[in-house]
């Protein structure tokens, strides 16, 4: 992981992230969020003061692993229940607006 | 759309060296999904095989399917990979409604298996070692149907309908390193590689590996570099290549297309391309740069997978033969010549023939049916033979022929019924009344009737004109609607004549 510093956060980066997250930002919001994000990164940066290279990276605070479930079929949702929260559907499938782009 | 320039294949190979890479997605045949106890089934009514986890509903939490992990490790071991001491899941973020969560759970920097290789055999027996970079676990996405527009494709669609039954189905993605040196056999190698992976996962029993159902999907990366250049060329990634034949064609097409552009001084755009089975061409998809900004991060809802040494030992001990070794053994066991065996492999029917023999059929019979009638019907309908019938059904059919209950002609009729979904061969024989009449009484009655109509036949036979029996045999077969063993009828007629 590269060393980050608050100076790294630019309005362009925030605009790019906003685009990836499909969030429209006004110029004012962009400016405010760039500042706020820089603050957050700065706060997290404190970790680097104690995390030296001999400390392995961690992705989880709980020291557990291999939590599995057996391959046994359980209860499923009814189609009605599944579609209940959908703004639009055709009775069996979710209806979404036309998609530009393609499958990932 | 303007017609794409293609360079002659041999000319392209003269100027450029093709470099290949593959990403093969294998759907695991577990009973349930990767992170939820929803059933992993194909062909169910839309949105009937889903749980809150599949829909990413608030408060739902994924839990890893132990069987999927075992299958993934087995596959990693079969690919000669190292198994990670500790492996974790990651979120791959993107906005597309094929997954409701707006991310796919995948693996990023700690895949379950890495650094392997697999031997692939080309038609003439040449062995090529394909280097494997990694094999990682992830979940499949849902299925979108684009409605409106003229083609059913994305362009011009008015809306899309989403079925999440496939969302969360366990996948292993196998990623190769760049493959050099295939030269003019690059298209052949592409097909052989995918076919080898298919045989391997079938032998492991971890996937149905039916390409026409999307159980096995291949993205083919192709780049060209001018002869003598060290640096790799810019690659394209062709998606949607869903049959062995298409893999070969798509790689050939991309080599010819890229060569034409490069020869004119143009540059290749790094992008995904879509394979079109109907036209045999690829078209531009999304550019790579922007869409690859997936912002992976460790999946906070899941804990690391730490396979024990005992588990790895157990799974390693249970590994089947490597595909190349298996092919050589089967060829010897079955006693086919080079051409006969190669035809089976090229048709992608090795596993089908093998499984048919495992159900008790003789190898030559299994080969005859798969490579004959079934392949013929599949080609006529432009589908994969394995989508028509199962090895089990074929072995049943063969058993009925072997026992004398069906003639080959009747068996072909039964096969049509099986393909039409009318039931098992036995059921179709019953329902259509197709059984060979092996009751001599019924045959003799029919022979008597035929002789009554042609009274001079017996005399002719007695005077040595045995071929006269043909007229009676024909009449009897007609009366029996073909459901008699002609050889037996002949015997009975000759007996009757005292010949």
Word description of this protein:
The complex is a heterodimer of chains A (about 100) and B (about 500). Chain A is mostly helical and about 100 residues long. Chain A has a domain of about 70 residues. Chain A is built from four helices and two strands, in the order αααβαβ. In chain A, helix 1 crosses helix 2. By secondary structure, chain B is α+β, with helices and mostly antiparallel strands. In chain B, about 40% of the residues lie in helices and about 20% in strands. In chain B, strand 13 and strand 14 form a beta hairpin. Chains A and B meet through helix 1, strand 1, helix 4 and strand 2 of A and strand 2, helix 3, strand 8 and strand 9 of B.
Features:
heterodimer, A: 104 residues, mainly alpha, 4 helices, 37% helix, B: 499 residues, alpha+beta, Arc Repressor Mutant, subunit A, 3 domains, 9-stranded mixed sheet, 3-stranded antiparallel sheet, elongated
Helix content of chain A: 25-40%
List low-confidence stretches of chain A: 1-6
Largest pleated sheet of chain A = none
Give the count of helical stretches of chain B.
18
Summarize the structure.
By secondary structure, chain A is mostly helical. Chain A has helices spanning 11-20, 27-45, 47-50, 79-83, and strands at 68-69, 94-97.
Topology of this protein?
The complex is a heterodimer of chains A (104) and B (499).
Chain A (H helix, E strand, L loop, with lengths): L10 H10 L6 H19 L1 H4 L17 E2 L9 H5 L10 E4 L7
Chain B lengths: L8 H7 E12 L24 H4 L8 E2 H13 L3 E2 L6 E4 L9 E4 L6 E9 L5 E13 L3 E5 L11 E5 L6 E7 L9 H19 L11 E11 L9 E6 L2 H20 L7 E6 L4 E7 H4 L5 E2 L10 H9 L5 H12 L3 H9 L3 H9 L4 H19 L9 H12 L5 H12 L5 H8 L7 H14 L3 H6 L6 H11 L6 H12 L2
Parallel strand pairs in B: 12-13
Antiparallel strand pairs in B: 1-10, 1-11, 3-6, 4-5, 4-15, 6-7, 7-10, 8-9, 11-12, 13-14
Helix pairs in contact in B: 1-5, 3-7, 4-5, 10-11, 10-12, 12-13, 13-14, 15-17, 17-18
């Amino acid at each position: 992981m590269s060393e980050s510093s608050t100076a790294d956060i630019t309005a362009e980066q925030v605009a790019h992230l906003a685009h990836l997250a499909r969030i429209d930002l006004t110029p004012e919001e962009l400016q405010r969020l760039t500042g706020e994000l820089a603050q957050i990164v700065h706060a997290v940066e404190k970790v680097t003061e104690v995390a030296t290279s001999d400390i392995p990276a961690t992705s989880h605070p709980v020291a557990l692993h291999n939590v599995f479930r057996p391959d046994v079929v359980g209860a499923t949702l009814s189609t009605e229940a599944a579609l209940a929260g959908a703004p639009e559907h055709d009775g069996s499938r979710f209806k979404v607006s036309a998609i530009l782009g393609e499958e990932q | 759309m303007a017609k794409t320039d293609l360079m002659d294949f041999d000319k392209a190979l003269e100027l450029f060296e093709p470099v290949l890479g593959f990403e093969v997605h294998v759907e695991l045949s577990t009973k349930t999904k990767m992170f939820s106890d929803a059933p992993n089934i194909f062909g169910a009514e839309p949105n009937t095989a889903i749980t809150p986890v599949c829909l990413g509903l608030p408060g739902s939490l994924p839990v890893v399917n132990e069987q999927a992990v075992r299958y993934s490790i087995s596959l990693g071991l079969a690919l000669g990979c190292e198994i990670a001491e500790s492996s974790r899941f990651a979120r791959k973020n993107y906005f597309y409604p094929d997954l409701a969560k707006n991310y796919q759970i995948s693996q990023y920097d700690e895949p379950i298996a890495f650094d392997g290789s697999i031997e692939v055999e080309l038609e003439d027996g040449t062995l090529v070692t394909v280097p494997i970079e990694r094999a990682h676990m992830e979940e499949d996405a849902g299925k979108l149907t684009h409605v409106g527009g003229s083609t059913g494709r994305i362009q011009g669609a008015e809306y899309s309908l989403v079925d999440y039954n496939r969302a969360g189905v366990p996948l292993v993605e196998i990623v190769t390193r760049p493959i050099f040196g295939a030269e003019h056999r690059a298209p052949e190698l592409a097909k052989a590689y995918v076919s080898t992976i298919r045989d391997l996962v079938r032998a492991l029993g971890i996937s149905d590996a039916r390409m026409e159902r999307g159980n096995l999907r291949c993205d083919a990366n192709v780049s060209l570099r001018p002869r003598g250049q060290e640096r790799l060329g810019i690659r394209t990634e062709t998606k949607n290549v869903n049959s062995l034949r298409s893999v070969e064609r798509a790689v050939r097409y991309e080599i010819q297309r890229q060569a034409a552009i490069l020869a004119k001084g143009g540059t290749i755009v790094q992008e995904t391309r879509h394979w079109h089975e109907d036209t045999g061409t690829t078209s531009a998809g999304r550019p790579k740069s922007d869409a690859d900004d997936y912002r992976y991060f460790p999946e906070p809802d899941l804990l690391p997978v730490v396979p024990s040494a005992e588990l790895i030992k157990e799974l390693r001990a249970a590994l089947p033969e490597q595909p190349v070794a298996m092919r050589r053994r089967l060829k010897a066991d079955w006693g086919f010549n080079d051409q006969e065996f190669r035809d089976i492999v090229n048709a992608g029917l090795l596993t089908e023939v093998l499984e048919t023999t495992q159900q008790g059929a003789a190898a030559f019979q299994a080969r005859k049916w798969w490579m004959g009638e079934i392949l013929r019907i599949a080609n006529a309908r432009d589908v994969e033979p394995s989508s028509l019938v199962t090895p089990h059904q074929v072995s049943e059919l063969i058993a009925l022929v072997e026992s004398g209950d069906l003639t080959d002609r009747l068996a072909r009729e039964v096969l049509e019924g099986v393909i039409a979904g009318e039931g098992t061969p036995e059921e179709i024989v019953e329902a259509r009344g197709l059984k060979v009449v092996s009751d001599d009484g019924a045959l003799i009655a029919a022979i008597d009737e035929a002789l009554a109509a042609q009274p001079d036949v017996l005399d002719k036979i007695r005077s040595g004109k045995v071929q006269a029996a043909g007229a009676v045999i024909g009449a009897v077969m007609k009366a029996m609607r073909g459901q008699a063993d002609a050889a037996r009828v002949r015997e009975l007629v000759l007996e009757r004549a005292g010949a």
